[in-house]
Specification:
This protein is of the alpha/beta class and 215 residues long. Helix content is 37%, strand content 17%. It has one domain: Rossmann fold (3-Layer(aba) Sandwich), CATH 3.40.50.720. It has a seven-stranded parallel sheet, sandwiched between helices.
Length: 215
């Protein structure tokens, strides 16, 4: 299938792109950063999802909206408005099979930077709107809401022993997810699942049971 992943150069987005490539799919990536994958079957477009022209990728069968920023002063613009822009461009065609949004545990707990939490809450609401509209094509739309994930974006707390100890005390399963685990969830929800739609899946090792934000 033809898969489009935004924010594909690092972290969760890169792991998702690699997961689809490993299963033999054709993957296009959109990211402000340069290509970090360089594998057969992958095409990279270095673009800003909010301000740049979106590329003509041909029919998109699976769309994964992953691109986002955190505590940037542009969280609502990029995470919500940019995601809407991408989805409106690629999702609503007869070719579409599944749309996935990478949201955040903070969409339901609110336990993070104010604009970031608001932007991800908006993403979950927009996911449900998308599910209503892609159903006419027999397609699904869902979101994943990870809690802590071991990416460079979170190095501020991962590499601070005192903060990390506090975070682990707030997590029922004392660990964070690897990007590859989130990618496996993304693959299942889009390429395997045919019956679940309009749902947000919380993958947070039990953080939401306490929901205190430590930074």
């Amino acid at each position: 299938m033809n898969v489009l992943v935004t924010g594909s150069s690092q972290g969760i987005g890169r792991a998702i792109a690699l997961e689809f490539l490993a299963h033999g799919h054709r993957v296009a990536g959109i990211d402000r950063l340069e290509d970090t994958i360089r594998q057969p079957g992958y095409v990279h477009y270095q673009r800003d999802i909010l301000t740049d022209d979106l590329p003509d990728t041909g029919d998109v069968e699976i769309l994964v909206n992953n691109a986002g920023v955190q505590d940037s002063g542009r969280d609502i613009d990029v995470n919500l408005k940019g995601t809407i822009r991408v989805t409106e461009r690629y999702a609503f065609t007869p070719a579409i099979r599944s749309v996935l949004f990478i949201a955040s545990a903070s969409a339901s707990t609110g336990a993070e930077f104010p604009e970031y939490a608001a932007s991800k809450g908006g993403v979950v609401a927009y996911m449900k709107n998308t599910a209503l509209r892609v159903a006419q094509y027999g397609a699904t739309a869902n979101s994943l809401s990870p809690g802590g994930v071991l990416t460079a974006l979170n190095d501020h707390v991962i590499k601070d022993a005192a903060l990390w100890e506090k975070i682990m005390a707030e997590t029922l399963l004392p660990k964070w997810a690897q990007p590859e685990e989130i990618a496996q969830w993304a693959y299942f929800v889009t390429a395997v699942n045919r019956s679940m739609t309009a749902q947000d899946l919380l993958i947070d090792n039990g953080e939401a049971a306490k929901a205190n934000f430590i930074w």
